[in-house]
Design a protein that fits this description.
The protein is α+β, with helices and mostly antiparallel strands. It is about 30% helix and about 30% strand. A four-stranded antiparallel β-sheet has the order 13-21-20-14. Helix 5 crosses helix 6 and helix 8 crosses helix 10.
Amino acid sequence: MRKEINAFLFLLIFAVFLFRILLTNTIYDGIYIENISLGGLTIEEAQKKLQAYEQQLLIQNKLELCIGEYQEDVSYEQLGVQYEFSNILEKAYQWGRDQNWMESYLTICSLKKKPVIFPLKISYNEDNIYLLLKELQKNFSQKPKDAIIQRNHGRFNVIKEKKGKKLNITQTAHCIKNALTMGNIKRIEVQIEEWQPQYTKTQLEQIQYLLGSFVTSFSEDKVMRNHNIQQASKQINGILIHPGEIFSTKKVLGEITKENGYVEAPVIIKGNLIKDVGGGICQVVTTLYNAVLFSELEIIERKNHSLPVGYVPLGQDAAFATTWLDFKFQNNTEGLLYIESFTDKNELYVNIYGTIPKEKDRRIEFISKIEEPPLSIITKDKQIKEESKDLYVRLYKRVYNKDQLIEEKVINESYYKMKSTS
């Protein structure tokens, strides 16, 4: 009887011990995720431990991006890597719990000799990879050098281009994603592609035909004004314009300041002649405007001066002011355009060259005519009276085939206040 009682007590104690093990709310001993032991931890405790481990891995784990001897180390954190342990944690907790009590006990016992190790799975954000590679692209790239076109002593000279190299982001991103998936690749040779220059020698050598030109004169004794003319002329000289591109004088010249090399000289502002920084620039803009007219390019924006100017006929001037007046035109040809601008003694030259020659027998001329202002202008501007000496001018374009007039049309309309400009 005593033996039976002892056996019963043993079984009772064993059963209590067994069920305490089986009914615990912690993960069983001998269960790991990677090399992190989760035994004796609740799911919440295990999650905190794994989060700390994840942060450590994200900083420590790196990929080496290489090209030749140059190398950039990027961490998993920079690549937007995340470790997926939520589902694995649930599996770790359920290990040995989805069986009957005896099988569960045997499973728990086996963990002491043969631990269960769950591997960590990773995911990554592709956007992070592409953004990071865009930031690093300049470190793995070598910019190309454009072909250079110059016109000296009446002849074009073209210097050959040089191709560059740049990081192929798409292919390199594919290599990174593959390395992250494999898990055992730590060094990646980045993928490089050729970087083509914007301008090649072949392209620029096609620029050889004069489309239009114009010359204006200035007084050699007006030193400050002439300085501004030369400065602005240098700014527009050598400019290339793509087919369909709009040339903006404001964009090319930039801010008209003393810091940018301009000085004070007379300018026309609201019908008055006063000194201001950049006086004389309008003559450069006007000369360019006329070269554009003779090149038969499309005028996008042009405004006449409030007073007549002495270096071109009425209606053929173009005013410019950094803050509110621009002169724009569009390259309506099928090839590149090249602007040549220079001064020689007291003359300012602007020539426009292209890739397509003008028709041999085509000739154009521009005629300014002072006319009566239309009713709409009289209504709008109450200052205009019958006795007013102000001028309303129309500029006409005449097109000839040899000597035969084939077209005449109005190019612009200009209105001038008549005041002394001395």
